[in-house]
Amino acid sequence: MDHLKKLILILIASLLLFFYPIKVLQVYIFDQGERFDEIIYQSAVKTNDEVTVKWTHSVSIRPVYETYSINDDFKFDVKEMIFDTYSANLPSQPEGDTKWEFREDAIRVYNYDIEFDEIPIVIGAVRANHILLFKDDRIVLKDRYRPGGYVKVRVVKKSLLSYVLKEVI
Fold first, then answer.
1. Distance from the first to the final alpha carbon of the chain
2. What is the pTM of this model?
3. 78-124: per-residue pLDDT in tens?
4. Contact 41/132 with Cβ under 8 angstroms?
5. Which of 54, 78, 161, 162 measures 20 to 30 Å from 94, CA to CA?
6. Domain range for residue 107?
7. Number of domains in the chain
8. Buried b (16+ CB within 10 A) or exposed e, 32-67
9. C-alpha–C-alpha distance, residues 72 and 161, integer Å
10. 66, HSE (Cβ side, Cα atoms, 13 Å)
């Protein structure tokens, strides 16, 4: 009977563990078509983890880094933007409460009060070469989906079992 109790406890613990909800960062295709909503990258996350989108500006042909922090509400707080030259569609002066730090090799804009539900990215078709940097992962988006394609980055809650199955299969 002791073995049966142990087996039942292990079974219950396993079920609870596999249905335990976790936060998962996902990059998914947002273009209409056959691959709509297909997940092309995912990784478990925690509150305050950071994700950076690195891309090459099409006019200045210089790198730009946008860093976001994941908050308790499964959203992205804009943490900072780093670039080394002014160019079209980049900040040109402080706005709101943003702060600017002028470094020898870059301009760092931070103290944003902006939150995104998801991070939209149109994958550069010519120069941009969007790369997602998360923990030790370096995800070249044009290698996961087509240049010119539209993807979004989101944080969702899913069961540990669902996450493990997606990663293993």
1. 37
2. 0.86
3. 999 999 998 888 888 888 899 999 999 999 999 999 999 999 999 98
4. yes
5. 54
6. 2-168
7. 1
8. eeeeeeeebbbbebeeebbbebbbbbeeeeebbbbb
9. 22
10. 19
